[in-house]
Amino acid sequence: PWSTTVGAGGTAAMAGGARGPPQDNMARACGEGRAPPRQPQPSGRVVVHIDLDCFYAQVEMIRNPELRDKPLGVQQKYIVVTCNYEARKRGVKKMMSVKDAKDKCPQLVLVNGEDLTPYRETSYKVTELLGEFCPLVERLGFDENFVDITEIVEKRLNQLQQSGWSRVGVSGHVYNHQAVNLHDATHVRLVIGSQIAEELRGAIYTRLGLTGCAGVASNKFLSKLVSGTFKPNQQTLLLPESCQDLIRSLDHIQKVPGIGYKTTQRLEMLGVRNVCDLQAFPPAVLEKELGVSAAQRIQKLSYGEDDSPVTPSGPPQSFSDEDSFKKCSSEVEVKEKIEELLPNLVARIHRDGRQPHTIRLTIRQFSTDKWFSRESRQCALPPHLSQKFGKESSNIISPLVDILMKLFRKMIDVDVPFHLTLLSVCFSNLKDLPSSKKGSIGFYLKQMSPPSGSGKREVENVSQGEGSASWDQ
DNA sequence: TGGGGTTAT
DNA sequence: ATAACCC
């Protein structure tokens, strides 16, 4: 199913003509008049963004191949959170209500995707696979990864120079159909990057059976923006000269990754509607509205500049499990929900092997207008409970429930009627178990403390501290 | 809108 | 602890 390699061949080497082919016919968001003058910066990096196609649906189709050629949606509560391309052809969209989706497509097959375990596991397999090629892999959600392949490109470049410079051709699309200039060192590196991106996608497909898109560019931001250009299972290379065209193709600022809901609201009050407005906006005014840091960051993004590194994600920083519902309004119900969430969560952490030192309870209260705000309370886990994650058996659930109920009462006065629509439990502040070698201090401490703790009483002191004292760092 | 995640303040 | 961001 792979898209064929598009040769950048002979005619592509248009030496001096640094400007890409004029593509002014597209109705772009930016007015003709004021193109801010900025050169594409010479960062020298090569970054790939990999974005799996309708990830949850793909995982479900692998789990049950019968679903392959049917329109398929993945459902959480009453929402179709994602769907395969058969379903999209028939008008089903991401985050559509089940009702609307069934109206659009009566034959739609739905699978429940509220348990993320299969997606999480597959997701980490992808990240680990990419990690075999290169240590610099950063996750973004479950279905996206950034890979900094600068070093691999350099290595290939050297090999090519020694073996006498064979043909280099682009793999996949080039944004804007811009001609490649093989006399331009930056172009050559990015072209090699496109070949490596094709190999990464190939490995993800042959080893895991998953398809996805890739974007190749000189930084994370641009690689992410360009990866969506050709949509299922294709890849796109961005050359520096087309950077402005790419970012100006965004018709609204909220499509800029890094500019979310809140910032969009503020920018709109300032009269900033599209990317060109943001590029041209007075920096000092922007800094007053958003703070220096955010202002400078997003204004640089508006030019396609992003010096943020690809930061290896490593193992997760937190483990959480949540459930949403129509109504939960008594303490007993809260306790039941928590007891439902915990065993799975505890098992996941146990598999991870590290010990959490912080626990958090998050709630969402029903309310008509600002239904999207949550509150949380967290506390340090008492050390003896942290340690129980290390090993099997003993009932760690009950003391955790006790702690969580105390956290709950810190947020909610149970004597006043309440109406929750979500509960979430999160463990964070994960530490490796002291790698107790024989003879080390850690070994003796670990051996000596646990023997006599039935683990019932010490829970009391955890949340009792009126000062809320957290032993957290 | 769900069921997750991250970092900055 | 919250607020912002990402999927």
From TrEMBL:
Q: Where is this region: Disordered?
A: 1-44, 303-323
Give coiled-coil spans as residue ranges.
none
Per the record, the domain of life is Eukaryota
> Where are the compositionally biased (Polar residues) regions?
461-473
- What's a single GO BP term from this record? DNA repair
Any keyword Transferase? yes
Keywords of this entry: DNA synthesis, Transferase
GO MF annotations, alphabetized: damaged DNA binding; DNA-directed DNA polymerase activity
Q: Give every UmuC domain span.
A: 47-260
Q: Which family does it belong to?
A: Belongs to the DNA polymerase type-Y family.
Q: What is this protein called?
A: DNA polymerase iota
What is the organism field in this record? Athene cunicularia (Burrowing owl)
Taxonomic lineage from the root: Eukaryota, Metazoa, Chordata, Craniata, Vertebrata
Its gene name is: POLI
